[in-house]
Design the sequence.
């Protein structure tokens, strides 16, 4: 049950984070970095799309390890970019480290017993050994 709560909690927090970014769209797009030569607006849209997809995957328990690992990498990159630019505040770094810790806990634990993937696949749960 704890893994289920953790999945729903971090997925919900990420979805609220995405909604916050979309509400302040103009400010985020103007400062967003170009990814793979795409425009700032396109890069922002692709990032939001993938973050939303990964949050939904984590909530449902489908591909939890992969989605959590990718989100942990995103958090690490965000920390690194803020550090390099000298804009790493104590509050922002604490929040990113908390996100990264939760994602890494989900990478280790997987989706748990109540993951949607366990209903459709004959997955072995690591905790049932």
Sequence:
């Amino acid at each position: 049950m704890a893994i289920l709560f953790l999945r729903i909690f971090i997925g919900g927090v990420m979805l609220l984070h995405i909604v916050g970014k979309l509400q302040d769209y103009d400010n985020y797009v103007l400062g967003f970095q170009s990814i793979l030569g795409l425009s700032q607006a396109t890069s922002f849209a692709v990032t939001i799309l993938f973050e939303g997809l990964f949050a939904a995957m984590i909530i449902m328990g489908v591909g939890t390890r992969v989605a959590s690992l990718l989100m942990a990498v995103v958090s690490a990159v965000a920390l690194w970019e803020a550090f390099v630019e000298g804009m790493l505040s104590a509050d922002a770094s604490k929040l990113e480290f908390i996100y990264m810790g939760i994602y890494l806990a989900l990478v280790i634990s997987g989706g748990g017993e109540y993951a949607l993937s366990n209903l459709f696949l004959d997955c072995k749960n690591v905790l049932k050994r």
